[in-house]
Amino acid sequence: MLIYLPVTAVAQNIETGCITAGRLDSGGRWAPQLSSVRLLDNEGKQILVKIKSELNRVRAAALDEATPFSRCEGEKFLKRGDNSPLSEAQVTAIRPGTVTVVGVGFPKLRVGGELVELQVQVGSKEILMVTP
Question: 13: helix, coil or strand?
C-alpha cells in the first residue's frame, strides 16, 4: 500500500531525474519491462520494445502508478548494497500520468545485464513522497 504525500512547492519548476523502466538481460532483451511504465513515441503511440536499439524511439512514458524518481546513474555500474533490510522511509516519486523522456541510460548490473533508466522532465507539482 502506498501513501501519497504531496511535496510542497512555491513555484512550478521543471525537475530532471530518472525512473527505471525495466531491465535488459546480457543479450539486450527485456527481462522484464515494468508493466506500470508504458513507453511512447513522439506521436504518443505505445512502443512495444523487444531489443535495446528500439529504445531510441522513446520520447515519453505513461506511468500507471506513482514511480520512484531519483538521480540518473547513466552508464555506471550500480553500487552493491550491504544486504541489510531497508527501512520504510519515504521516497521521492512521480505522480501517475505522462512524462517527457529526454534520454535513456543503461546502468550496468554486477550480475549481468543492465537497467533501462529513463531521464525525464517533470514539473515540481508532479513530484510527491511515497511510503512503500
Answer: coil
Q: List the one residue out of 126, 57, 47, 60 whose CA is nearest residue 93.
A: 126
Residues 73-118 have pLDDT tens digits of: 776 665 655 666 666 777 788 999 999 999 999 998 888 889 999 9
- 23 within 8 A of 31, measured Cβ to Cβ: yes
CB 18, CB 120: distance < 8 Å: yes
The pLDDT value recorded for residue 100 is 94
What element of type H or E holds 11?
none
The number of domains in the chain is 1
User: Which residues form the domain of 20?
Assistant: 3-131
Residue reference for cell 555500474: 77
**In terms of residues, how long is the chain?**
132
Residue 83, pLDDT score:
61
DSSP string, 29-84: BEEEE-TTEEEE-TTS-B----BGGGGGG--EEEESS-EE-B---TTSBPPPP--P
Q: How far apart are CA 40 and CA 97, in angstroms?
A: 12
